[in-house]
């Protein structure tokens, strides 16, 4: 039986998170990006865990398996960032990506976000299908608010409108 845990980021797992993300970006998908080009990873609490944002780490049997972050960009909007699931834990057996996304969306609803935006690369085809299956709609880059942090490698952009539950 696999024990899956999703918890807010703690600096005790900083190097594991960095290694996990860089491995997927560079080794698996061939995205030529360095740690120096991602200063957010060098200060996760100061970058993501402020205002209404957060960063989560998923483990399977205490092994690093996935990450996801919500950056508060103001005006009740958030940017979904750093969603990376290790290849061994993708798919229907673990449903780890789904669990990470649901964790983020539940947090966003509780914090009264109205919209979640994201950017992704051309190479992340499975991720694009995943977002679309989960109700994200593709938008043009010029529809992004000025506060949205566009990454150099991002070429496709998505929006998800959150429905606020009535009291």
Look up the CATH topology: Aminopeptidase
Structural class: alpha+beta
Mean pLDDT across every amino acid position:
94
Strand content: 25-35%
Q: What spatial form do the alpha-carbon principal axes imply?
A: globular
The CATH architecture term is: 3-Layer(aba) Sandwich
**Annotated CATH homologous superfamily:** Gcn5-related N-acetyltransferase (GNAT)
Q: What can you tell me about this protein's structure?
A:
It is globular and about 40 Å long. Helix 3 (96-110) links the parallel strand 4 (77-85) and strand 5 (115-120). The protein has a single domain (4-161), classed as Gcn5-related N-acetyltransferase (GNAT) (Aminopeptidase, 3-Layer(aba) Sandwich), CATH 3.40.630.30. It has a seven-stranded mixed β-sheet with strand order 1-2-3-4-5-7-6. It has helices at 14-28, 44-47, 96-110, 125-133, and strands spanning 4-8, 54-60, 63-74, 77-85, 115-120, 137-139, 156-161. It is of the alpha+beta class. The protein is 26% helix and 29% strand. It is built from four helices and seven strands; from the N terminus they run E-H-H-E-E-E-H-E-H-E-E.
